Amino acid sequence: MSMSYCSRVQLCHNGVSHAKSLNTYMDIISRKEAKEKSLIHYFTGLPCKRGHICQRWTSGCVCVECNALFAKQWSETHKKEQHEYYKRNIEKSKEYNRKHGKKKKRQRAESYQRNKEYELEYNKQYRIKHKDRLTKHYKQKRYENRETLSDNAREYMRTSPVAQLRKICQRTAKRLSVGEISESKFKLLLYTPKEFQDHILKDTKFSSLRGAWDNGYHIDHIVPLKYITNNITNKELAFQLAMDKENLRLIAGKINLQKFDSVKSEITQKTLRYLLLKYGLTFD
Ligand SMILES: [Zn+2]
Predict the structure, then answer these.
(1) What is the 120 CA–ligand 1 centroid distance (Å)?
(2) What is the pLDDT of residues 59-71, one digit of tens each?
(3) How far is the CA of 121 from the centre of ligand 1 (A)?
């Protein structure tokens, strides 16, 4: 049997700090000592009979890796039985959840807060390790729930102020880029398609918006639409702010999607101050 390290030991090598029970992960500590300190794990540094070098449960001496293996095997062989038991006793299980659900949820949340750093790192590693499986799983889920999802998307488009503002901004930008703009929009924006294009393309290597779009560039709102709709309920005013020339810039699509600028960033704050002054608004 070859030696293998359990995944948690690898996390330790990455220098991640652990939960109380895992703090002593790489420190040798006997079961007796662990009991005295009420730790749930101890660590001898010696391999188990299957070759895992990792912590053991103080309660039963079994190594955590073996224990996880047993649990997995058990649940695989008893899957059907468990499912049938659950179906037979569905009321019992509902009753249990009613009684203890809140407590369990709270305990889980508290445990998460205590071990946040560890959990975040653990989840990150988990996602990397199981990337392909997870991608497939979510794709399947999206397919299974496609009707609900498209309903939700429609509902979101219909009711969310930020979605509506985004839609109208996109439509306006498109019209501006081909040199058309309706009179009513011009009254709000006070710039011509030519002025729009000159502003957006200045300091870039592009001579037309089409060229920029073909190269994966987007028009970005410096003060985010979400921020605007959170603070302004008047739709016309929100549109004016969002589409103010000074709030628009051309940006590589990839960067835009990463949302590297938070509202606190210098350029956003500067633009925000400018807009507030221009439109005579106050909010923070
Ligand atoms: Zn083991």
Answers:
(1) 25
(2) 999 999 999 999 9
(3) 23
Collapse the DSSP code of 191 into the 3-class scheme (helix H, G, I; strand E, B; otherwise coil) and give the result. coil
Q: If we measure between CA atoms, which residue out of 213, 224, 232, 226 comes closest to residue 272?
A: 224
Q: How far is the CA of 41 from the centre of ligand 1 (A)?
A: 13
Chain segment 240-249, per-residue pLDDT in tens: 999 999 999 9
For residue 26, what pLDDT is reported? 63
Q: Tell me how far the alpha carbon of residue 66 lies from the centroid of ligand 1, in angstroms.
A: 4
Mean pLDDT of 20-48: 77
Q: What is the pTM of this model?
A: 0.52
What does the pLDDT read at residue 22?
44
Q: Which residue pairs from 18-23 have beta carbons closer than 8 angstroms and sit at least 24 positions apart in sequence?
A: 18/115, 18/118, 19/114, 19/115, 19/118, 20/114, 22/55, 22/118
The chain-wide mean pLDDT, for the chain, equals: 84
Q: How far is CA 77 from CA 67, 71, 74, in A?
A: 15, 10, 5
Written as one letter, the residue type at 11 is L
Q: How far apart are the CA of 46 and the centre of ligand 1, in A? A: 10
Task: Determine the distance separating the centroid of ligand 1 and the alpha carbon of 113, expressed in angstroms.
Answer: 29
197 with 209: CB under 8 angstroms? yes
Backbone phi and psi for residue 4, each to the nearest 5 degrees, phi listed first: -145, 145
Distance 110 CA to ligand 1 centre (A): 29
Concatenate the DSSP letters of all residues of 167-183 into one string. Answer: HHHHHHHHHHHTT---H
Look at residue 43 and give its three-state secondary structure.
strand
